[in-house]
Amino acid sequence: MNNKYRFLRRDSYVVDLGSAPGGFAAAVAKTVKLDDRARRWDQEGKRLVKRRITGRRRSRPFGKLVCVDVVDMAEIGGASFIRGSLMDDDVEHRIGYALNGDEADVVLCDAAPSTTGNSEMDHIRCVDMAKAGLGVANAVLRNGGVFVVKVFRVRKKRNWLRL
Ligand SMILES: C[S@@+](CC[C@H](N)C(=O)[O-])C[C@H]1O[C@@H](n2cnc3c(N)ncnc32)[C@H](O)[C@@H]1O
Would you call 131 a catalytic residue per the annotation? Predict the structure, then answer.
C-alpha cells in the first residue's frame, strides 16, 4: 500500500493499532528507520506532554513506531509496544509518552475483535473498533497526518465508508 500511496517516510512517526502478531509493524520497519539503541518494549504509560508541531517539520534522523495490542507480539528493534486496548481511556497518553510528546504522522488500524460467526454482528463490532481507532488517530495525529484503517465488508453493508 505504501508503494502506491507513499505515506511512510524513513523518519515517520507511526502508531500501529492492533499490531500483533506484527506483520504491518515489520513492513513499517522496512521503510521507517528506527533507533534500535532504544529499548522501549513494554514501557508503562506516563503523563503525556503534548507538543504541537506547526508548519512543515524538519527531517529527523529516526522515525518511531508505537505498537498497541491487547496481546503480546514479537519484539521489533527500536519500536515501542503498549499492551492494552485502543479503547482504554489512557491509551492516547501512553502513545503520546512513547512518542516523547510528539505527534504521529501515520496511524494504522488493523485492530479486529474476535469473530462471533454472526456476520452482521461481526461487522458492527469491526466498525466500532475502526471508529475507536479514528478517535485515537484524532488525538495523536498531527495536522495533515494519515489514518489507514482496515475494515472487513459484509454483503450490502457500506456504512463503514462513513466513519
Ligand atoms: C488482524 S489482527 C492484526 C494483524 C496485524 N496488523 C499484523 O499485521 O500482524 C487484529 C489484532 O487486533 C487486536 N485487537 C483486538 N481488539 C483490540 C483492542 N481493543 N485494542 C487493541 N488491539 C486489539 C487483536 O489482538 C489482534 O492482534
Answer: no
